[in-house]
Design a protein that fits this description.
Shape of chain A: elongated
Shape of chain B: globular
Number of helices of chain B: 15
Largest interface: A-B, 31 and 29 residues
Oligomer: heterodimer
Helix content of chain B: 40-55%
Strand order of the largest sheet of chain B: 3-6-9-1-10
CATH architecture of chain B: 3-Layer(aba) Sandwich
Mean pLDDT of chain A: 70
Distance between the termini of chain B: 13 Å
Structural class of chain B: alpha/beta
Low-confidence stretches of chain A: 181-195, 220-242, 550-591, 672-682
Number of helices of chain A: 26
Mean pLDDT of chain B: 78
CATH superfamily of chain B: P-loop containing nucleotide triphosphate hydrolases
Distance between the termini of chain A: 52 Å
Largest sheet of chain A: 6 strands, antiparallel
Helix content of chain A: 40-55%
Number of domains of chain B: 1
Strand content of chain B: 5-15%
Chain lengths: 791, 358
């Protein structure tokens, strides 16, 4: 039994593959579940009382977790000590951070694996407690469901077939085994079919399993449920802004995302709004570095730490953030002053990103003065020197840069001379037709997220969205010696057509940015020029003029969008148009839709028909199975069910004879024999059949064991079928058409059994609760009495 | 498994009951082995007896059948009703239809135990004490108005009923077989009566109540009973050997495991019932099952159905259980409570139970 539970839990946990990266977590998980299961089995074999058994399981869980994770801090290697608790706190903190800041697959760090193992162990104990002492093996499926729910909601591909299958097999095993290891006779009284139970539950479970797997294929649109493919359950809100790299993908995929930003700018072209930059490329997950040490309060006047060229294009932008909520303030690059903010804000001189100290961007209206070096191809081309004036942070790469990234960077920039040429070569490569923009591909390919390994996947698959393009360009630039960082923010958005009046200015055109415009782009540093934004993401955003391909140099244009995205063009491309259609309801391609629809409708109709007919089919299946071996007992059971179907259900306190008498006198079997003079042979046949069925059953059930072999088995079978048929004919002859219809299509005997099956776990739970409540009441009463006695 | 253990427990219980209620179904002690009748003979004999009784007592077929059931189950019958409804007539008729020794004791307050059991008298000629048998030395003893005798006399009958023997002056004398006491009594509220103690009531297998005859039967009764006592026309229809054979047949009736379980469940239900102060004793369950066997045999079957148990349960159990005071004051009767228990007690008839019991 415990083995079955362990199998089930481990099977379900297989589906966690994909939530974690790699298989490192599996060994501790198996150890934990195995040890806990073993402890429970041993305690049970020793016939320990159920409560201590469960407690023992919990203690074993604590020990094994301690042994696996906190060995150095523990007494004797497995007994928790004070130091263990400290480490535990750290672990939990790490796990919490992982949960909040990473997306699946997460790195299997000790914290999160610890939490997973603890959860699996608890589920094991819970299932064991449900299945064995409480005698509710069916409910133990809930525990398995708990395990399965996590990957199903977190993992982009859903729970995964393997895990589901393994969990289902385990569950069936639990059900099967529970028959043998039932702690009391309750279970056997409920459905005591002895030896065939395991086999039968296997068959039923197998059929249910196959159905469950086939149904989604047969029903159209099943894949679009509450959790569309690729979206993730994020209980902390769509944009908590803790890690913009992650919220980015989410807000792109959930275009209904909260709020939109409107801005009006004096710039000739709509501007990119930058929230934050990411410049540390080590670690599994890239996140913004806030540089707490060097931050400065008050963005009223801002000046970067690096030298700027004298020639600057100054701009004014008025921004209203509306409902958009993030700790980082979206501003056009490069801000020199921000006015009108409420709350305390700080800025980082190295990256010029502005962060709220005690507030968020929600409902802020502010004016940003920004200055951008006047950039032309010519000025950029001048710079070939190694950058010296900025921090080395922007050039450092972790040691684990995958080979594919290095090789690609080398190949792409092979012919380029100078930093600008190299940057352009990288951008061209990424904008080339080899790469496609897709929000779904990374999710399906399992490389959604960020980090070095993701980058390698992206360069292989050549499909992804802005995060991937931007990080690829940033990393490759660093490989080529160009300082780089990834900017996260919003693409220009689209014009609303309205204008905003700003004091001392002409009315400025207003633009609107919403969640679909969430964007990431690389910024590269050129000595003497400063940080320069590039746009390697195909079909997104606006390619700045300096970064746009000179027609002669680039040969055939790599991207059609370049033409109409030339800066200054009055209509900035609404990026919505550029987003490839999501795989949604309306996305079905035109050709073949009709035939597919017909197919689906037919399949659905067929399925419905099978569903509607299933009670009838099951009922007749039961009948056939009962009548094949014959035997008065089975025939009697069939007679009872038949009578139930036609509205004469047997009463538990009734003897067979009494039941038969009631049946004979009921209207459905026609008039009683005494009054049946002209009523026809049909009724008589029914009456006679009931009488002989009753007699046979009584003899079989209550008669002496050897008193039956009057006729052979085959004869008996035949007689039983004939009699049942006669009774049925009489019923159909006498009952109303509605009763006949109900009996044929929704047989009450079957329905009530199904309902009972459905409700039995709840009823039993209710019973347990009631008993507990009674016990509690009694003890409270006793307590009161004791108190009174004292007085 | 568990259920099987259940089964053995039940069997054990039944066996225990047999030990408690000594002696169990006895073989004939009079030397000859009664032969088991075949069903046709049994049916014919029982039909003859019932027809004879029904000729005398109109409209009381149920009571007659129950009386015969008790006779065949080797029990004793207590007929309780108001005066004048034919209690004594029933007892006498039953006794007359069988060719056997019948004696009648009219219980009165001054009746002595020796009048019942017999007494040793000094014989002048042989110069020794001789035992003069009392009225109890018969096959069927009619104890009329048994609750009019003193407790001392009543209990003198006890040994006879239970042990089928009489002990006087240290000598034990066996009674004949079959032996049956048919006692009549007035309801205990009537004046001048000594109510039967519980222990003694428990010795009677069944208590029946005659009830008033219906209109037609009463009219007919007025007609036929005018001239001559109907008892005079009754002639024995079966011999005592026949009755012994019938009793042996009844003993052969098969009782399946599930019927035993049902009987035990019924007994336990009476003990657990909140409305009863005293439930059915193990002995009463044994007698219940015996009566059920006789009923089955009279019905022409060689095995007992739960229906048989149910049909005799009220008569067998009602006089043994004692109501809780609350239940009594709220208008419940033992009969009604037994009926309620029967209505709520499940009869296991599913296929699974069948397989379990085998």
């Amino acid at each position: 039994m415990s083995a079955a539970i362990a199998v089930a839990v481990l099977g379900a946990s297989l589906s966690l593959n994909g939530v974690f990266r790699g298989w490192v977590w599996l060994v501790p998980a198996i150890t934990t579940v195995f040890i806990v299961g073993l402890t429970l089995a041993v305690l049970r074999a020793l016939r320990v009382h159920p409560l201590p058994t469960t407690l023992g399981g919990l203690i074993a869980l604590v020990f094994i977790l301690d042994f696996t994770f906190f060995r150095p801090e523990s007494i004797a290697g497995f007994i928790p000590s004070g130091a263990t608790l400290d480490t535990l706190g750290q672990f939990l903190k790490r796990a919490g951070e992982t949960v909040v800041s990473e997306t699946a697959p997460v790195s299997p760090n000790a914290g999160i694996v610890f939490v997973a193992c603890a959860g699996l162990g608890l589920v094991t104990v819970l299932i064991d407690a449900l299945a064995v002492p409480l005698g509710m093996p069916a409910t133990s499926g809930l525990g398995l469901l708990v395990v399965l729910v996590f990957p199903a909601t977190i993992k982009p591909q859903g729970g995964g077939l393997l895990g589901f299958l393994a969990a289902a097999v385990g569950f069936i095993l639990i059900l099967g085994c529970s028959q043998w290891f039932a702690p009391d006779s309750r279970l056997q009284n409920d459905n005591s079919h002895g030896t065939g139970q395991l086999k039968r539950s296997m068959v039923i479970g197998g059929v249910a399993l196959v159905l469950g797997l086939l149904l989604p294929l047969a029903i159209p649109g099943f894949e679009r449920g509450t959790f569309p493919v690729g979206s993730r359950l994020n209980p902390w809100g769509v944009s908590n802004g803790l890690n913009p790299m992650i919220t980015l993908g989410n807000s792109l995929r959930n275009p209904t995302g909260d709020g939109s930003i409107t801005y009006a700018t004096s710039s000739t072209a709509p501007v990119y709004l930058r929230s934050v930059t990411i410049d540390k490329f080590d670690g599994d997950t890239w996140a913004p570095d806030d540089r707490e040490a060097s931050r400065r309060i008050g963005p009223g006047r801002m000046a970067p730490d690096y030298p700027l060229p004298s020639e600057l294009v100054r701009q004014l932008t008025v921004i209203d953030t509306g409902q958009f909520t993030s700790p980082y303030l979206p501003v056009p690059y490069a801000p020199t002053a921000v006015n009108g903010l409420s709350g305390r804000w700080s800025w980082d001189p190295e990256t010029l990103s502005i962060r709220g100290e005690d507030g968020t961007t929600r409902n802020q209206q502010y004016t940003v003065y920004s200055a951008l070096p006047a950039l032309t191809t010519a000025t950029l081309s001048q710079d070939n020197a190694k950058p010296t004036s900025i921090s080395q942070d922007f050039i450092q790469l972790p040691s684990n840069v995958p080979d594919i990234v290095k090789n690609t960077a080398k190949t792409v920039t092979a012919g380029a001379n100078g930093n600008y040429a190299k940057a352009m070569a990288i951008q061209d490569y990424l904008r080339s037709s080899q790469f496609s923009y897709s929000l779904q591909a990374p999710v399906q390919g399992g490389y959604d997220g960020n980090g070095m390994s993701v980058l390698a996947d992206f360069l292989q698959q050549k499909s992804g969205y802005c995060v991937h393009f931007a990080s690829a360009m940033a990393v490759m630039a660093r490989l080529e010696g160009i300082p780089s960082r990834i900017a996260v923010g919003y693409a220009p958005g689209h014009a609303t057509g309205a204008t905003v009046a700003v004091a001392g200015q002409e009315p400025l055109p207003e633009y609107q940015v919403d969640a679909r415009d969430a964007h990431a782009w690389p910024e590269l540093y050129f000595e003497g020029v400063g940080w320069v934004a590039f746009e390697p993401t195909p079909s997104r955003g606006v390619v700045p003029p300096y970064a746009a391909e000179p027609v002669a140099a680039g040969g055939p244009s790599t991207n059609l969008h370049d033409e109409n995205l030339v800066p200054g063009s009055s209509t900035p491309a609404p990026s919505t148009a550029a987003v490839p259609p999501l795989a949604g309801p309306g996305a079905g391609s035109g050709t073949g839709t009709v035939s597919a629809t017909v197919l689906y409708v037919t399949a659905a109709a067929l399925l419905l028909a099978v569903l509607a007919a299933s009670p009838r089919l099951v009922r007749s299946g039961i009948r056939a199975r009962r009548l094949r071996p014959g035997g008065p007992v089975l025939a009697w059971a069939e007679l009872q069910d038949l009578a139930t179907d036609y509205g004469v259900p047997p009463v538990p306190s009734e003897t067979p004879r009494h039941f038969a008498g009631r049946l004979s006198n009921s209207a459905v079997l026609g008039a009683p024999v005494a009054a049946a003079s002209p009523s026809g042979a049909d009724d008589d046949a029914g009456q006679r059949a009931v009488a002989s069925l009753t007699g046979d059953f009584e003899r079989q059930r209550y008669g002496p064991p050897a008193g039956v072999p009057a006729n052979t088995a085959a004869e008996q079978t035949h007689a039983a079928s004939v009699r049942i048929a006669a009774v049925r004919a009489a019923f159909r002859h006498n009952a109303s058409w509605f009763a006949v219809f109900r009996a044929e299509w929704f047989p009450p005997s079957l329905m009530s059994r199904w309902f009972q099956l459905l409700w039995s776990p709840f009823r039993r739970l209710g019973g347990i609760f009631a008993a507990a409540a009674r016990r509690a009441a009694t003890s409270v009463q006793r307590l009161f009495e004791a108190i009174r006695w004292r007085r | 498994m568990d259920s099987k253990r259940h089964g053995t427990v039940d069997e054990q219980l039944l066996r225990d009951e047999a030990v408690v209620a000594l002696p169990p179904e006895r073989e004939s002690l009079n030397g000859y082995k009664p032969t088991v009748m075949d069903p046709e003979q049994f049916h014919a004999a029982s039909e003859k007896i019932l027809a004879a009784i029904n000729k005398v007592i109109d409209g009381k077929a149920e009571a007659a059948k129950l009386a015969l059931t008790v006779l065949l189950a080797q029990g004793h019958l207590l007929v309780e009703d108001v005066p004048g409804v034919g209690k004594t007539l029933l007892a006498k008729t039953l006794a007359r239809t069988i060719d056997c020794r019948v004696s009648r004791i009219q219980f009165t307050p001054d009746l002595l135990p020796s009048d019942v059991t017999g007494v040793s008298i000094y014989n002048q000629s042989s110069r020794q004490f001789e035992f003069r048998m009392g009225a109890v030395f018969a096959n069927i003893v009619i104890g009329d108005e048994i609750n009019r005798a003193s407790a001392k006399t009543q209990s003198a009958l006890l040994e006879c009923m239970e042990e089928h023997q009489v002990t006087v002056d240290g000598h034990s004398y066996q009674l004949g077989e079959p032996f049956m006491v048919v006692a009549t009594q007035n309801p205990i509220e009537m004046e001048g009566t000594y109510p039967l103690p519980e222990a003694q009531r428990d010795r009677f297998m069944a208590r029946i109540s005659m009830g008033y005859p219906d209109k037609l039967s009463e009219i007919e009764m007025l007609e036929t009973h005018q001239a001559v006592s109907p008892l005079a026309k009754v002639t024995p229809v079966v011999t005592s050997a026949d009755v012994a054979a019938m009793i042996a047949t009844v003993q052969q009736v098969y009782v399946s495991q599930s019927v035993k379980e049902y009987t035990v469940a019924l007994g336990r239900a009476t003990r657990d019932s909140a409305r009863l102060r005293l439930g059915a004793s193990p002995r009463s369950l044994l007698q219940l099952l015996r009566a059920a066997k006789a009923t089955a045999a009279l019905d022409g079957r060689d095995f007992v159905l739960p229906d048989d148990v149910i049909s005799v349960a009220e008569s067998v159990l009602a006089h043994r259980i004692i109501l809780d005071r609350k239940a009594a004051s709220s208008g419940d009767t033992p009969q009604s409570i037994i009926r309620a228990i029967l209505a709520s007690l499940p009869v296991s008839q599913d296929a699974g139970a069948e397989r379990r019991s085998s």
